[in-house]
Predict the 3D structure of the following.
Amino acid sequence: MNGAAREPSSPLGLHRVVEPAGVLPQAARRLDPDAPLREDEVRVDVEHLNLDAASYRQLHEAHGGDGEAVREAVCRIVRERGKMHNPVTGSGGMLIGTVAETGPRSPLGLKPGDRVASLVSLTLTPLTLTDGLRDWDGLSERAPARGHAVLFGRSIAAALPADLPDELSLAVLDVCGAPALTTRTVADHTARTGVPPTVAVLGAAGKSGSLALAAARRAGAGRLVGVVPDAAEEAALTRSRLADTVVRADARDAVALAERLAECGGPVDITVVCTDVPGCEHAAILATRDGGTVIFFSMATSFPAAALGAEGLRADVTMLIGNGYQPGHARQALDLVRTDPGVRGLFDRRLRREGASEGASAVSRSAEHRSAVPPAPAPLAHRPTASTGKLGLDPQLVARARELAVRAGRPVVDIARSHTTVAVERAALRLAGLSGADAEGIPWVNRLVDAVRDQVGLEHGVALPVWHALRTGAGRDLTDLAARATARDVSFRLPEGAEATAAVRTARRAMAGGLGVIDGRRRERERLVSQGGGARGPLVYLIVATGDIHEDIRQAAAAARGGADVIAVIRSTGQSLLDYVPHGATREGYAGTYATQENFRLMRAALDEVSAELGRYVRLTNYASGLCMPEIAVLAGFERLDMMLNDSMYGILFRDINPVRTFVDQRFSRQLHARAGIVINTGEDNYLTTADAVQAAHTVTASQLLNEYFGKEAGLSDAQLGLGHAFEIDPDLPDSFRMELSHALLARELFPDAPLKWMPPTRHMTGDVFRGYLLNGFFNLAGALTRQDILLVGMMTEAVVTPFLSDRDLALQNVRYVREAAGALEEDFRPAPGGMIARRADHVLHEAVDLLERICDRGLLDAIAAGTFGGMRRPVDGGRGRDGVAERAPGYRNPAIELLENPADFDREREGEDQP
């Protein structure tokens, strides 16, 4: 249909309501799914329906388990109502499909060909079925379907992730509101009381239940109790380790459940109801202590029974209806299933059961039906293992590698979530607006954090004592307070009750302002990149490092005009060991230039001028590493840097920074980078400067997998994971180039959506500039053949002198020649199946899996201490900066972290609402 001819419509879908008039689509008895598409609507060709658990259970029981009758019942509902709206349970489910057509004013950001999942209920989604659900046996919630659905302007849909099977994505997105609401409720309880809540989940081994448990854990909840109905689910939940205590009980028996909970600590602060059976309302209320909260995330809930039951039990509890929408809910749920093996295991178990029932029912179908209708394909999880990509990697081995990386990394994340550092607290103050330095050049954030630490410690964070002091008149603003604290004119104390609530509220508003600045800078970047167009081929990454920011600017401008897409300003040697960020513009530095906010500002402004001149956006890179990692992350967000080298392993191994200190700092810095839209660069390439690139190749792969987990856990997307690797094999080895291709292609296929950072040869550069120029040509060719995204320009004078401008010009010529001559050669490069390149990649991947298994057995911190990475031994209690680490006490508050982990809180702050 011609877009200009489309009629205006209601974003709520009112124009689709057939009867009764005047109601919203969800309340309508019938919708019109077949009227022409309006200007803000999207039509989706349906591939699968996913009935919600309560609706499917009701239909299954009403028809005595007869799949044919269930199928006909669903078809009848859709025919009669123009939507899937179970008249008994009032619920429906959701769908996946492919966008077929979009109206010109659709705000959903979808385009034809996108594969999506609807995140609004089928009870309000106009739907037509054209196949009679013939490929569905009626024996599981997931129904293959053909037809179309219509999404309104106010609908919600999510693109299906490429890294998860469709049936898994569908199952997760069907219940993605549960973990989001659980996270918010846990955070609100902690903010209100200062104490992490105890949480019980009814139906804890199910889809929404397992996600709710994992979300509660990540939100900082205390004791977690999982309630399940039978021995099989008890065993599965126990294996998952999602709950501290697993209780087998009938959630419909209020008294029995209360007795079981009394045996393991008594009523809880928050109860989440995720069952698919009616009658659990009273048990949930009795399970919750007075002043607590019950979340009913079950379509089988009777809200009159809940309200009247609470009244009759004289229960002082807040009862929440589970809203299927929260900002960021889909991303959070998918990240949980990616990064938490316990959650993934329970989902896989459920999908295996459904696959088995589908297989059994297929055998019993009639011969007539079998001959008329081709059998539906088996679920993806149960298809025979097939090799993938150009290397023929075993997908089960790849999945195993990722699972092990999560297991190895999770204890380190737990440490990061339970500790703070002086740098984390200083970064929070910088977000709140504290900047500048005293007459001695010591930053005010250092002065203020040191004063708080000396008086009350850092275990509760600086927000409570600092903003309480401001509210009680100890300083006009943060800078004045820091000056007075330096002069010892301020006595800090930890407020309690209403005073603590007021202090945190004020701190949160101040820090939300800093995040608002970072958001604005991100939008600026997105606008400039879209105006300048994207780079063709890899981003050409070139280093400047004179020590003088003004000379750096001149060299950076020349490099950009010569073809560089990314300018990296190397930091002065040793800055990573400074426990403060220097202030102002600097003109001195050894083998690099100091990273300061003013230097960032000057270089960004200069590159913006060059970008306007060239008609393309030139990116800026620096270092968020060392003892001030999170502070520099804040400054990078403020000044619109585009990439940051950010890898705690580099600081641990090559700067001897304490492992606990830098893992804590890394998590907060990556949360900030995620918010700022900054691409991180990791440092695996450095391992190969101290260890043999062939023998240690698997350590690079293992570290990349760990960095992927750490990055995604902190909120980074695939597009922000600039995982590092390098062209460092001894060129005198036979087949060295083939091995380089194997290693590079392995990284590409393991991380297909990550902007890989490809580093040039350094270790085997001898000073022979002609040989070096040739090696860099082979390096550039390997990058072209394996689609590396960020290509650091190799210098033939490496190991001889600091490069001259003429050296950089020759190096850029090398890059340009190979890039133009190779063109799309990557499309034609396909290693022989079972050949040397494929065998080498398989060998490295197996070695990486073996290494990750050993790390899981001994622990990542112990593996680092044993010299596993880069041959450097770094004990957990050694290294610089250990004295700047503090274990969080109950009641610890850092509003910056809270705002980053709960975007809805930030939205409310920016709207001016009071938040405790």
Observations:
- Residues 182 and 723 are 32 Å apart (CA to CA).
